[in-house]
Amino acid sequence: MSTNTSFTAPKGSSNKLDTDNIPAGMHLCTLYGLADIGTQDGGNYGPKHKVNLAFEFPTQMRQFYVDDPMKPSCIFTDETFSMASKSNLRKRYVEPMISRQLTDTEADNYDFGTLLGKSFIATITISSDGQWSNIASLVPLDATNMQFAGLTTPEVAGINDKYFFHLSNGFESENFKNLPKFIREKIQSSHEGQAHRASGGVFAEPPKRDFQAENASPTLVLTAKATNTLAEYKAGNWTDALLIQEGLAVMSGAVAPPTSTPAAPPPVAPPVAPPVAPPVSPPVAAAPIAPPVSAPPVAPTPQLHIHVMPDGRKCIMNDTTANIAAWIAEQWTPETLVSNGYAVFQ
Known about the structure:
Helices cover 21% and strands 23% of the residues. It is an alpha+beta fold. The relative contact order is 0.09.
């Protein structure tokens, strides 16, 4: 039997990467988060009502976790939620951000939401231990520092989703649910958060992320529009790209239930043929018009009964008493006389 009594645990590993601080100097930043985090214990100074301000630095992109995309470095600062004349919130942040001093009346009624999404130039200093980047001062964008930041407009596209929370929104609100996890935890540990929990209250939570599904290889999934199984579509020569283009499938980690309708081939547009002119029927010839039947001319008084043709032939009337010249004068020709049996050639 082994007598080994060693009982150790592995150090474990984290997928969080070591990243550089925002270097000292002037940098473009945007206020993207503002949260009332309630009354926090303050050590020697006693409990203080605090507000958290979140600044993102779009020119300072970092990869914070393995396999994560690049994201902007951020600075979060907790300040006493007070607009007293000498408070940090008023003197170091709000008044520099709006580039003017507030009267006490204005300060009492100042709407912090108007600052959310605005961009500034921050002067960054590094803590004495070299661990932290801190905001030493802020100025709003103007024509001079916009040029320094390479901007032509004071509007800077945000990268992180903006968030805003005030205790009056409630712990079960969408505003609370959309806060970063560490901000939600700070609020839950505040005096107000603890009292809410003690009274049976709950806190809104975002849906749990399915990391296994997120890291799974993309899979082609049929949509409700599809009427065939994927195998049937493939047998019908459908490609993934065509299925997606036609709205019959999407790429996802989930698997859709199959259907059983026979496969249809990919839609092929019929060739467009030029219009064919209808055949032109030949005109129907009118029926030949028979010459009017006229009564044979009345035989004139017989005189001569021989007519000599130019070729020397003689046209002789059958009736030796008929006057051939008179018949010809009546539009009879020797030929018609012969063809009608009134004469012969000799």
